[in-house]
Amino acid sequence: MADFAECLRNMIDGDVITRDEAKELGAAFERIRAQKAASMGEDAAGAAAQAELLKRLEAEAKHKKRKALLTIAAQRRLKQQLADFRDPSGAPDIGLASINLLEHYGRAGYSSVAGRFKSIVGMAQAEMEELLHEFRRTAFLGTRQNWARLENVVRELFGEASGDPMAQGFARTWERVSDGLRQRFNAAGGAIQKLENWGLPQSHDRRAVMKRGREGWIADTLPRLDPSRMVHPLTGDAIPPAELASVLGEVWDSIVTDGWNRRDPAGVPFGRGAVANQRTDHRFLVFKSADDWLAYQKEFGSPDAFATMMEHVNAMARDIAGMEVLGPNPSATVEWLKQTVQKETALAEAGKPSRLKAGRYPGLGIRATGNLTVTELEGLWGELRGGVAPVNEGLAGVSAGIRNWMVAAKLGSSTLSAVSGDPATIAVARKFIGLPAANTLSSIAGQFRGAARREAVAAGLINEEAMHVLREQARWAGSLGGPEWTRWLPDRVLAWNGLQAWTKAAKHSFGREMQAFLGNRLEESWDALPAEFRRAAEGYGFSAGDWSLMQKAAPQEIDGARFLRPGDIASIEDPRAREVAERWLEMILAETEYAVPSGTSRGRAMMIGQTPPGTLWGELRRSAAMFRGFSVSIAMTQGARLAAEVGAGRGARGAGYAGGLLVTLTLGGALGMWLKQISNGRDPQKPDTNDFWLAALAQGGGLGIFGDFLFADYSRFGNSLAATIAGPEVAAVEDVWEATGGQLRKLLAGEKTNLAEESLRLLRNYTPGGSIWYARAAYNRVVLDQLQHLTDSKAAQRFKRQVQNARRERDQGFWWSPGDATPDRLPSF
């Protein structure tokens, strides 16, 4: 042991291993020596144990050397990309170049982490399209279809014959996709061993694990595991059954402390970015059988195996994207980018040559520009890595639950905004990159066919429902989180009102049009393609050489039309084929954000930053960020595209783009306002006042309820401007206070109370699904207005005053008058 201990000390001094790793290796040495001592004696056993561990340490050292070489190669590439980058005016801008490495929408010439992540997910989903379709959710309740077959898939993955050929096929598909991701992860610097009949990863509900307690969790979990297939993640040793309980204690500590039990405070920031060694964690627990895995997931995780599969794909894609773009330790690279920006800031302040562009943020000086860029890098990287862990889980869960309730209560008519606005933005986006802008509505309508939806997913166009990422589907809601049960209501409301289906159809329509555009031009040369399209493609790094490769693909043919899918390009016999295919998909998905704005990671990072949930300030920022993702996305993507045109000396084209966007968004906003007015029992307002067109502009631009404040002191929900700016949580507190504490204050002061009126206002504003566009008028008139008749002796006068005010202020009538249980007539146009 003395020689081995000296070896460990030398490795610690040489920064080959950490002290914790040395401690674990020392324990492993004693364990192996004790096992071998019975058959070969103490001295021989010690020598054999040392030789075995040194061999493994040599392999680990080789892996670390490989990661170091990959890191050096990544930094060389990144330095060149930062040096070559020019903004639209032709000036170097290291701040924008650094941010573009994390996320961009066609203005960098290289891939971003966000774009690579989406393209990896899209390609994986394309391979699993049949599996995604088989286990889709039901339209009404959102429950998983074919649950029994899904359990059969789990059994097949654990090497158990289910007798279901389809389940066996789905299991092989999952194994092929997941192992492909494993190999790609390893190629980027990871080290995940292949396990036959591995089964599935585990998801851990931290609260459930913590509630059960350390000893209880160990007692429940231990009988379900297969120790013979569990190996120590560092040494690779099979873990003796006698030591398994103590090892599980460490696993419990890691789950409930979010991994902090294995980390010591240090002078460098910790992030989820050092991922090259992380993906082995969820493979450590190996269950005996499918039943054991299912039992564990039901008690301590998620019993939905399909969700577990998709979450694994998302997590692997996120890690692979970070490692491929930034190197094996992406968080360290982000720190390097921040320091590079800080260095350039200092050079600029000293009057020396610098690549920092001080004018990128209007009105800010050099120091402020550098600091804001660093803050953006921090926030955007945190958003891409999955956000910040909550400080107080109870507060974070309650706040997220309230926001989910707000979505369910207030976004019931959001579909009308999408239906009226999306065709406009799609047409403008198509025209900008050289695609024909005609037949937009028919193209969207075609995507509602079941076959078309499946073809789109098989073509790499992401099925966001399968990603289990509500924020991409909610659009105006921003990021949704919180306890799983609180997500059901907003998810269902957005399904029942048609927003999910419409958004999916609109996005898939745009993506398929791009694929058809190139698929029908494969015989044309690069120079023969429209200049607008070539210019856009160059923003994603495409060149004439890439186009020559893409022309070798065999496109999909449907009814005489040809579609150039990423998978068609990936099938070409060329080592660059997969990379070009994913860049093509990255371009499609990024350009779709211009056409069907949903909210960008950069926009969410700017609104929320790195403020952790579970703090007062963090929750206030998340409240204020709700319902604003669409507006921020419009400003950041469309505004940046306009600025790029002006900066590149194409002011006339930029002005035309801005004008077209302004006109179409305003007209779409007007249509959206009319549709919402009709859904609320009103006739469409006459478009003959400045107030109407200002509100239409605000509505079309995504400001939504802020259009009300152009000509009123309170929003349509009855909240003050301050409360509306602060977000729905603050507005809800304002309303609940007025209905409770406010009424009590009036009672104690001898003033007249209006509890019934305030209670009805709460029901009107906060009933989940109460704002769904096709049921909104009926709910208000048949339910709430009749309740008001019962509780308010002056209800008839109040309803009559509403009609008179609408007629006097906006010359607007009602087709279903307030207080009436049945409609008077059809809407008047």
Strand runs, count: 2
Mean pLDDT, all residues: 86
Amount of helix:
55-70%
* DSSP helical segment count: 38
The largest sheet is: 2 strands, antiparallel
Report Rg.
29 Å
What does the model show?
It comes from Starkeya nomas. Residues 810-829 are annotated as: Disordered. This is Large polyvalent protein associated domain-containing protein. There is one protein chain. This protein is mainly alpha-helical and 829 residues long. Among the domains are: 1-84, no CATH class; 329-384, no CATH class; 775-829, no CATH class. Helix content is 63%, strand content 1%. The protein has helices at 2-13, 19-40, 42-84, 94-102, 113-127, 129-134, 147-157, 165-187, 206-212, 214-221, 241-256, 290-300, 305-326, 330-349, 366-384, 393-410, 414-432, 440-446, 450-458, 464-467, 470-474, 484-496, 499-519, 531-538, 544-550, 566-570, 577-595, 601-608, 616-625, 629-647, 651-679, 690-700, 721-726, 728-739, 741-748, 755-766, 776-791, 795-810; strands at 556-558, 561-563. Strands 1-2 form a two-stranded antiparallel ribbon. Strand 1 (556-558) and strand 2 (561-563) form a beta hairpin. Helix 8 (165-187) packs parallel to helix 13 and helix 17 runs parallel beside helix 23. The N and C termini lie far apart (91 Å).
Fold topology:
Elements: H1 2-13, H2 19-40, H3 42-84, H4 94-102, H5 113-127, H6 129-134, H7 147-157, H8 165-187, H9 206-212, H10 214-221, H11 241-256, H12 290-300, H13 305-326, H14 330-349, H15 366-384, H16 393-410, H17 414-432, H18 440-446, H19 450-458, H20 464-467, H21 470-474, H22 484-496, H23 499-519, H24 531-538, H25 544-550, E1 556-558, E2 561-563, H26 566-570, H27 577-595, H28 601-608, H29 616-625, H30 629-647, H31 651-679, H32 690-700, H33 721-726, H34 728-739, H35 741-748, H36 755-766, H37 776-791, H38 795-810
Antiparallel strand pairs: 1-2
Region (Disordered): 810-829
Organism: Starkeya nomas
Protein name: Large polyvalent protein associated domain-containing protein
